[in-house]
Design brief:
The chain has two domains: 204 residues, Beta-galactosidase, Chain A, domain 5, CATH 2.70.98; 390 residues, Glycosyltransferase (Alpha/alpha barrel). The chain has 15 helices and 28 strands. The chain has an eight-stranded antiparallel sheet. A four-stranded antiparallel sheet has the order 1-2-3-4. The chain is globular and about 75 Å long. The mean pLDDT is 93.
Length: 601
């Protein structure tokens, strides 16, 4: 497998990755950021997996059940056909909450003939530290480790348990199941119960997806991306994860390997804005509550990221016993970037707060909290916007005056002014408006480089940076402003490589990147569209979509040469930007059709 040819299943509590051959190669239970019980993704020898093995006569195809997170892997050999329907149960309970147990189900559907398979069931608890031992009991198969920490998991199945553990041939005569759980079940599962779980979960996702509007173009891509973003939300706290994995490298064999199973304020806020635009109000509401809960003190600065259960300390460790994805070490858990200062997060968060308040001003139970946060953000920005920071790309070297950070400081004040008007708090407006203008003037004076005819990465720098393209999206500058148009062209000339974008080209702590950061290409496409180069933008977009995996999923990066997916997967950033582009193209077509209809009248 040369690509990230995986599907994601999940239930807003945890997630698992299933390969296109039906092997579960990554799964953490009971939660997203728990230690893994399958990590073949990060070490093919010792990581552990849950594989369904068939002989060479079978062809294997994989798809999602439309508008759901139920993954179907079909095995066919002439008349002998069966399917695996992989899912993590999630559905509404009678009391109004959701049932999302820490377990996954592999429902085996007998389609025709006498198909046969073997199971390679090889859990390796606690990131494969120490030895995991597996025992067949009367009602289940139990695996446990006494390594660095005691841990267990339980497998229930309708098939012969000894045949499963020993990897013997199993013939499928009727539907069957595997239920892998973190906890021992109080009641014995049955095929019928597992079928009910499957149908309930399917209905949950169909109901959730039905709230996503229909668009004229790219409907299936928008739907799949929206479901993927939902799968990366953590129901218990409202947090949104950057990705479901850790340490998938930006470049094979290099060391840019990070743990993304956390909530970055920037990534999460951008994702929430898009999910909110698609009409999924509850996800946005819960995320804002997550933010409210994080800021108890009025003078407390926001961290750039938090644990999904609101943890503030995310100490970084390396797992030296794991060889890494395709041999790319180190494997990291935790993320030291939580200590960094990135001034852009205040603007991104204020943008989301304003969006939600403007859409649902009559339905905001935490309005007073949000007004308090707004005032706190203005105070922090007013005292710190002139300071250098690490920037959106988390440079681990010296701080700089990054243009993107300054623009987002301006956004923080601009949206705070709008929020003040919504709440009729006019006594703040004069002071805040002066600050907004001061920041804007500063950016125009220092970020614009007349020699390269563009806004550059940081004050006084000649270097291009794809993040600068967002100054138009956030309303800092008009798309048709000659300064923005020339910036788009300068960034294209400097950072585009065969239609894919570098984040930047100036060397960072690790040298020149050899892969494209996927979201940057989406930003570039959006910018082309906004400045009027719509056909070119559409052509780039269709080409970029062709680089997704077989299920339409994207990771963080795309290799410039091979076009293989790299980096953590699936990536919220990539999918939120895909949705934004797709909606723009779809709206454009709708507007053109309306104009054509009017002209025919």
């Amino acid at each position: 497998m040369n690509n990230l040819d995986y599907g994601i299943i999940g239930n807003c509590r945890s997630a698992a990755l299933v390969s296109k051959n039906g092997s579960i190669d990554w799964c953490c239970l009971p939660e997203f950021d728990s230690s893994s019980l399958f990590a073949k993704l990060l070490d093919e020898e010792i990581g552990g997996s849950f594989e369904i093995l068939v002989d060479d006569s079978y062809t294997i195809k994989q798809r999602y059940k439309k508008h759901t997170a139920v993954l179907v892997t079909k095995f066919s050999s002439g008349n002998d056909v069966f399917e695996i329907r992989d899912f993590m149960p999630r559905y509404r309970k009678p009391d109004g909450g959701y049932n999302s147990p820490p377990e996954l189900v592999r429902y085996i559907k007998h389609v025709s003939g006498k198909p046969r398979f073997k199971v390679k069931y090889n859990p390796k608890l606690e990131y494969a530290h120490g030895k995991t031992e597996t025992y067949v009991k009367k009602n289940f198969i139990v695996s446990l480790t006494h390594g660095e920490k005691f841990d267990t998991c339980f497998l229930y199945t309708s098939f012969n348990k000894n045949a499963v553990v020993e990897g013997r041939d199993i013939e499928i005569k009727d539907d069957g199941y595997f239920l892998l759980g973190y906890n021992e079940k109080l009641f014995q599962p049955t095929v019928r119960k597992m079928y009910t779980e499957l149908e309930r979960t399917k209905v949950y996702w169909l109901n959730w997806s039905s709230k996503t509007p229909n668009y004229r173009k790219y409907n299936s891509q928008i739907s799949r991306s929206a479901i993927t973003l939902k799968l990366l939300t953590y129901d218990k706290s409202g947090a949104v994860l950057a990705a479901a994995t850790t340490s998938l490298p930006e470049t094979i064999g290099e060391v840019r390997n990070w743990d993304y199973r956390f909530c970055w304020i920037r990534d999460a806020s951008m994702a929430i804005k898009v999910i909110g635009e698609l009409g999924h109000r509850n996800v946005a509401k819960r995320y804002l509550q997550f933010i409210v809960d994080l800021i108890p003190d009025k003078d407390e600065k926001l961290q750039i990221m938090y644990g999904i259960n609101k943890e503030k300390k995310l100490t970084e460790h390396t797992l030296d016993h794991l060889s890494g994805y395709k041999g790319s070490k180190p494997v990291r858990i935790g993320n030291a970037a939580y200590k960094q200062r990135q001034n852009d997060i205040y603007g991104i968060l204020m943008d989301v707060i304003y969006e939600q308040l403007s859409k649902y001003s009559n339905d905001t139970e935490n309005g007073e909290d949000l007004w308090g946060i707004t005032k706190g953000i203005v105070w922090i920005v007013s005292h710190h916007w002139k300071e250098a920071d690490k920037g959106i790309w988390e440079f681990r070297t010296e701080d700089r005056h990054f243009t993107f950070s300054k623009v987002l400081c301006w956004v923080a004040i601009d949206r705070a002014i709008k929020v003040a008007r919504l709440f009729r708090k006019t006594h703040k407006l004069e002071k805040w408006t002066q600050l907004e203008q001061e920041i804007k003037n500063d950016i125009h004076a220092n970020a614009w480089n007349p020699e390269v005819n563009a806004f550059t990465q940081s004050y006084g720098s000649p270097d291009m940076d794809a993040s600068v393209l967002l100054m138009e999206s956030y309303g800092f500058i008009h798309a048709k402003d000659p300064k923005f148009v020339s910036t788009v062209h300068a960034i294209e000339k400097e950072l585009s490589h065969d239609g894919l974008m570098y984040r930047y080209k100036n060397e960072d702590d690790f040298g020149l990147p050899s892969s494209s950061f996927t979201i940057c290409t989406f930003w570039f496409i959006n910018s082309l569209f906004k400045i009027g180069e719509k056909e070119k933008a559409m052509k780039h977009f269709d080409k970029l979509l062709s680089y997704s995996n077989h299920l339409g999923l994207f990771s963080e990066d795309i290799d410039f040469k091979t076009k293989r997916l790299l980096g953590n997967f699936p990536q919220a950033y990539s999918h939120l930007a895909l949705i934004e582009c797709a909606i723009n193209f779809s709206r454009q077509e709708s507007e053109e059709q309306v104009l054509a209809s009017i002209s025919r009248l």
